[in-house]
Write a structure and sequence with these properties.
Blueprint: H1 2-7, E1 11-14, E2 23-29, E3 35-43, H2 51-62
Antiparallel strand pairs: 1-2, 2-3
Length: 66
């Protein structure tokens, strides 16, 4: 996933895989990756995710202290 974002000009920071095997990526433009737009990616291992995971992600994105 980071290769796709980097090919589009983003600078990526990837967290180590979590206990569920998922990977989290933050990406931004500019030399340090701090310029807009900012992209936050939550990658889950396995199959489809359900409503609780989507709700949790929406909560994190709407939290001003993030």
């Amino acid at each position: 996933m980071t290769a796709v974002l980097e090919s589009e000009g983003f600078r990526c920071d990837m967290s180590p895989p979590g206990p569920d095997g998922g990977i989290d990526i933050s990406a931004g433009r500019g030399p340090l990756g701090l310029d807009s737009p900012t992209v936050l990616v939550q990658v889950k291992s396995g199959g489809q995710v359900g409503a609780p995971v989507v709700s949790q992600l929406q909560g994190v994105l709407s939290d001003p202290e993030g």
